[in-house]
Amino acid sequence: MASREQELSALPQTSDPPRSRLSELLGRLIYPFRHGEAPKPQTATGFFTDTTVCIGCKACEVACKQWNQLPSDGFNWSGNSYDNTTELSATTWRHVKFIEQFSEQVTNNYASLASLDIAAAEPAFNRWLMMSDHCKHCLAAPCHQACPTGAIIQNEFENVYIQADICNGCSCCVAACPFGVITRSDMGGHSHKCTLCYDRQRDGLEPACAKACPTQSIHFGPIDELREQARKRVEELHRRGVPQAYLYGDAASETYSEMHSFYLLVDHPSVYGLPDAPFNPWLHMMGDYLRSIAGGLAAIAALLVVVFLLKP
């Protein structure tokens, strides 16, 4: 992959030839009515995040912000472990979560803290969970279904992508997402989220976060290969004495589709800030339509009754 980046950096830099003002004006008038050719479908890609090897270094956060030129969130102390980002936002597309699970028992013998015997006797529930969170790139994404302008699409890699220039800032996608991934920008009013480095993928490069991860907690590649790799990793953890390891989002459920960005977890999803059973609000639409029609008919019937009773 590094050689591919060197190849791209060696390519000559080009730009569009200059145009006259009349040509530029005509181009702007005609452009909205032009239909370009859709890109050819590519192998579906995604992320597999192994939380058991995440060390909370935030290299993925930094790489994401640097590549996508996202502004800093400031240097505010949240008081929530080492998590100063606190959540995903329009300017933070990667968020490393820190979950501290420690007992309230504290030893007063500080000299014994360096003893290996004390460390070996430490309860199993004293642990520190970390997870790099991002968009799940759902196969049947509620945000995609809710978008009224067509700004949210599934690109040729089957990743969910927001076209900011088409987004009207209605926030329907914000309400539809069960994971709280999408937010509106305070500056432009458009919705933003992880693009799975669509620009890098088109050039044959892996996403910046996966490239920067020092422990290979973030895996990128064809989604079928990632699922197979993830299942083998779960089996390995089970053999090594971690029976609670499981995959989240790798397969479809009765209420939600599979995700092209899934996780390996060792505790309940709610511990990581994920819904235990994500639900696609689109499944409620048929009932909502029927209730709306029934309510409209009832209102018309009541109006006719009132008119009939008041008729002289």
What does this entry look like structurally?
There is one protein chain. With 312 residues, this protein is α+β, with helices and mostly antiparallel strands. It contains ten helices and ten strands. It has a four-stranded mixed beta sheet with strand order 8-1-10-9. Strands 2-3 form a two-stranded antiparallel sheet. The chain has a two-stranded antiparallel sheet with strand order 4-5. A hairpin with a 6-residue loop joins strand 6 and strand 7. Mean pLDDT is 88; it is low at 107-116.
Question: What are the main properties of this structure?
Answer:
312 residues; alpha+beta; 10 strands; 31% helix; 14% strand
Lay out the secondary structure.
Layout: H1 2-10, H2 21-30, E1 45-50, H3 59-68, E2 95-101, H4 116-120, E3 127-133, H5 142-146, E4 152-154, E5 160-162, H6 172-176, E6 183-184, E7 191-192, H7 198-202, H8 208-212, E8 218-222, H9 223-239, E9 246-248, E10 261-265, H10 285-310
Parallel strand pairs: 1-10
Antiparallel strand pairs: 1-8, 2-3, 4-5, 6-7, 9-10
Number of helices: 10
Strand order in the sheet with the most strands: 8-1-10-9
Q: What is the radius of gyration?
A: 25 Å
Name the shape in a single word.
Answer: globular
Please provide the ordered H/E string of secondary-structure elements. HHEHEHEHEEHEEHHEHEEH
**Helical content (DSSP H or I, runs of 4+):** 25-40%
Mean pLDDT: 88
Q: What's the main sheet like?
A: 4 strands, mixed
pLDDT < 50 runs, ≥5 residues: 107-116
| Distance between the amino and carboxyl termini | 85 Å
Strand content: 5-15%
How many β strands by DSSP? 10
Structural class: alpha+beta
